[in-house]
From TrEMBL:
Binds 1 zinc ion per subunit. It comes from Sediminihaliea albiluteola. InterPro entries: Amidohydro-rel (IPR006680), Deaminase_MtaD/DadD (IPR023512), Metal-dep_hydrolase_composite (IPR011059), Metal_Hydrolase (IPR032466), MTA/SAH_deaminase (IPR050287). Belongs to the metallo-dependent hydrolases superfamily. ATZ/TRZ family. Belongs to the metallo-dependent hydrolases superfamily. MTA/SAH deaminase family. It comes from the Bacteria. GO terms for molecular function: 5'-methylthioadenosine deaminase activity; metal ion binding; S-adenosylhomocysteine deaminase activity. This is 5-methylthioadenosine/S-adenosylhomocysteine deaminase. Substrate binds at E101, H194, E224, D309. Keywords: Hydrolase, Metal-binding, Zinc. The lineage of its organism: Bacteria, Pseudomonadati, Pseudomonadota, Gammaproteobacteria, Cellvibrionales. CDD domains: ATZ_TRZ_like.
Amino acid sequence: MNSPAESADLLIHPGWIVPIAPSAETLCGYSLAIRDELIVGLMPREDSRHWQATKELELPNHVLMPGLVNAHGHAAMSLLRGYADDQALMPWLEQHIWPAEQRHISEEFVYDGSTLAIAEMLRSGTTTYSDMYFFPNASASAARRAGMRCQITFPVFDHPSAWGRDADDYISKGLRLRDDLKHDGLISVIFGPHAPYTVSPESLSKIATLAAELDLGIHIHLHETAGEVAQALKTHGERPLNTLQRLGLLGPRTQCVHMTQLNKQDLELLVQSGAHVVHCPQSNMKLAAGACPSHELLAAGVNLALGTDGAASNNSLNLFSEMHSAALLAKLNSSDAAALPAYQVLKMATLGGARAMGLEDQIGSLEVGKQADLIAVDLAEAATQPVYNPQSQLVYACNGSQVSHSWIAGRPVLEAYRLNTIDTDALAARTQYWQQQIAAHRI
Ligand SMILES: CSC[C@H]1O[C@@H](n2cnc3c(O)ncnc32)[C@H](O)[C@@H]1O
Ligand SMILES: [Zn+2]
């Protein structure tokens, strides 16, 4: 007796599927079914005959894989792309970026800059991003408008900005935003203390207490440069990671961004605490900050996510390019060509990010029951032919322009290379407006 047909909104028949988990293998000749916002089937193509689908999509030259997770960035800084290059972190921040932010940051700036960033990220395969920036309400509005999944890490500083007066003010505004968005299926809100050198131990301690009470994550720039660690040793007599641990800020809810400076004790602390590390290789290289020892962290069992950082220090928000850099940097840094092979990089850019954000049960791999956040990558063009190993192609040959389709919670946001949720003409006009404003006030 035939079993009753299963139903789907969409059945996709790609050349290959790279599910990331539960298996690291590439599936050839498989189909994937989506119903509502979920993945409801993953089966050999011949079995898909038993499915009734509203729509079917043949993608014979494509790889289907989880949408990429950009685990660290400052989306609105896309409007400052190319504003100040070839500088080390502190002169770049103190002499260029922070004065420009003081002059221009507003709700409109953040909404428009975030939309520009989202357009770039969606075009290059990112379906989830983490954002730390002023006016996080505007960033959340841009994400919601575009149908993008997003982790908002509301900023906390001790000094004032257009968005907050002091640490208490940033925290109360951020927690209000978190209450407003509590029921949003695509947006989560967590603490984003900027760094141990801009947030006092008292404020960090307050954040630790609140985060534990409310079960909220913490996302922080940490051990980005040797100067940061040296300064902390001079001022506080300990390394920033030790300060975080002493204040109760280090645990499985903590996302440590950068970690280019790592000694043996730091590594042990990360392992014991269950904290996550967000690796941002291109920003670290451009600012000559250092290299996060990604292969050592993975070998020790630390969960690693991948981020671009802001477009002002990268200067792109393209996770395909970031994966390529992560792989090459690990090999160079360890003098080991086997360090960080393609699968590990793909996992870092998908499931690793999802895990860091506490979203592992929902996204990061193509498994039945998870949210349908996925992308199709076309390998038909010369630059990605021939195909011996699709995973190798994704990390070492693709540059992001091969992403043709993207779904977030089952919704098609990119179809045949076209963005469905962003008015790109209006966005170009707003970008032009901001470029003129920023250029006119440049010092
Ligand atoms: C609180 S909003 C984010 C804040 O961070 C600044 N920023 C951008 N990139 C970096 C980086 O690599 N390290 C430290 N701080 C960074 C950004 O300009 C905003 O002021
Ligand atoms: Zn950053």
